[in-house]
Amino acid sequence: RHVKKKKRRTQGYYTHSTKDMGLQELSSAEALSEFCSSNANALVCFSATWCGPCRKSHPTLMDLAESYEKDTSMDLKMALIYESNLGDDIHAYKVGAFPTYVLFQNSTEVGRVEGVNFDGIRNLVASKGCKKALGAGQSLGGGDSGISNLSPAEARAKRLEKLQQSMAASTAPPAAPTDAVKQDDVEMKEAASVPKKEKDGDQVMAEPEEIDQTANLDKEALDTLTGAMGFPLLRAQKGLLYGNGSAVEGAVEWLLEHQDDDDIDEPIPMKKPSDAAGVAQSYKCNDCGKVLSSMANLELHANKTGHADFEESTQAIKPLTAEEKAAKMEEIKGLLKAKRSERENEEKEEEIVREKQRRSMGKEMSKTREQMDREARKREAFVRKREKQAVVKERERIRAELEKDKRERMANKGKLSSKLGVDGYNPDAIQYNVPGAGESPDQEQQKEHVKKPPPSASKIEDYIKKVSAYRAGGDGGKCLKILLAYISNVVNNPEEDKFKRVNMENKAYKGKVKPFLGAKQLLLAVGFVLNESGDTLVLGADADLSLLSDTKDKLEKALAAY
C-alpha cells in the first residue's frame, strides 16, 4: 500500500494528512505533549528511522490507525514520533526499545507495548475502554434520527430496506464476473500464497526476510546505557551489538573507541539470513581443533594448554540436555576426585622428601657446629699457650735483671752505680727533684737549709734549658708558664706586695714547679729568697727589676720555642 504523504502545520505539530489515514507524525517533544493533552485517548508509537522492525511494520501501523479512525465508536487518536525528533527528551518516556507503543489517557500513561505486537496493541486499547460515550436517544444500531425510537431489529430491517432501494436506483449494475476472470483471480491468489513461482521456466525465489540485529539485545543493559549513562539509543545499540560480550562494559569500551567515527550515527543495517548464517557463533582452536562457546572459555583453554592460534567459527554449540548435563556433572566430579587423590599422593611424596631433606640438613648442621667448636677450642688453646710462653719469658727477664742487680750490689758494697731514669737504667736521663730513697720530707727540708752557693744570675739560661728539657706530657712547658706568670706579675706590678711572694705549699707550685730541676734555682737567681719558715719565697728588696724584665723575655722565648 502506497500512500502519498503531505505534511502540514496543525496545532503546533507536523502531521500527515488524515484524509486517508489517522496516523499523525509529530516533530518535537512539545508537539507530543500537546497531542497527548488535546486528546482523551492518545496512542503514540515511538519509532526510529534506522529501525528495521519499525520500517517493516509501518504499513500495518497505518492500517490500524486508519481502522480506528473509521470506527465511529472509537475515541482514539494515533501518532508517530521518531527518536531523532525527541533527542534527550526520549529518556523522560523511558523508551527502551523500538518500536514502543504507549497509550495515554488525559496525558497520563496507562499502558505500553514494546516491539511489533499489534494484537497486544488491540488488547491494550480494548482493555482501557477507548470508546465514545453514547448520546441521548441513540442506540447501538446507529445515529439516524428517523429510526432512533425503533428496536434494534426494526432499525436493522429499516437500514436493509434503504440499502436495497439505493442499489435498485443505480443505472448500470455491475456485470457478473466471467469464469475466466474468476479463474485468473484464483490463480493470482494462489500465486500470492506460495513463496515461489515459475516464470519462463525459471524458479524465482521469494525474497528472504531481513533480520533485525537489535531485536535480541539485552534491554536492561540498553536501559543502563541510555538512562544512567546518557548515551543516545542508536549508539547504545551499536555498543551492545559490536562490543565485547554484549555487556555494558564492552559497549562502553567500544563507544569510547569509536565515538569519533564518521558513521557512528548511521542506522544499523538489516541482515539477511545468509548474512546471519555467517555470524561467528563460537571460537575454534587451530592447534587442537576444539570449539569453544565463549571468550571466557577461550581464555581458560589458552591458559590451560598454552595454545595461541584461534579463529572465529560459525559452528553453533548446541546446549546440553538435562541428561547430558547430569552425565557431564558426574564426569567432572569423577575428574575432580581423581585430581584430588592425585594431589594428595603428590603432597605425601613431597612431605616425605621434605622430611628427608630436613633430617639431612640437621645432620649437616650438627657436623658443622661440632667442627666450629673444635676450631674454637684449638684457637683458645693456642692463645693460652702463647700467654704462658710470654709469662715464662717475662719471668726469665726479671730473674736476669735481679741477678744482674745482685751481682752489681755485691761488687759495689750493696750500691748500684747507675741511677734509675724514666727510660730504665740510664745514668744520663733527666732526673726529677724528689726525695731520695728512704728520705722523709723533713730530712729533705733539712737538706735545703744546708748552705749551698746561691744560684748565679749568669746561669738563668741554663736553668731555663733544664726546665725546657722536660718533654714528657708537656711538663716543661707548664713549668715555664708558671715561672713566667710569677715574674710577669712582679715586672708589671712592682708596687704590689702580693706578687712578691710565692707560696711553696701552693698546689700549682708543688705540682708544676717543685719537681723540675732548675725551676726553683731560677726564682732564687732573679732575687727571690727563702723565708725563715722555709715555705715561702719572698722577693728581696734589692732585687734588680731589669734582671727580672730580661728573665721575662727569655721565658717568653723559651715558652714559644717549647
TrEMBL record:
Any matching Pfam family: UBA_7
Low complexity compositional bias, start-end: 168-180
Q: Where is the composition biased (Basic and acidic residues)?
A: 181-202, 337-355, 361-390
Q: Which GO terms describe its cellular component?
A: cytoplasm; nucleus
Keyword set for this entry?
Answer: Metal-binding, Zinc, Zinc-finger
The family database entries (Gene3D superfamilies) matched by this protein are listed as:
1.20.58.2190, DNA helicase RuvA subunit, C-terminal domain, Glutaredoxin
User: PROSITE patterns from the entry?
Assistant: THIOREDOXIN_1, THIOREDOXIN_2, ZINC_FINGER_C2H2_1, ZINC_FINGER_C2H2_2
Using the record's annotation, list all stretches that form the C2H2-type domain. Answer: 283-312
Name this protein carries in UniProt: C2H2-type domain-containing protein
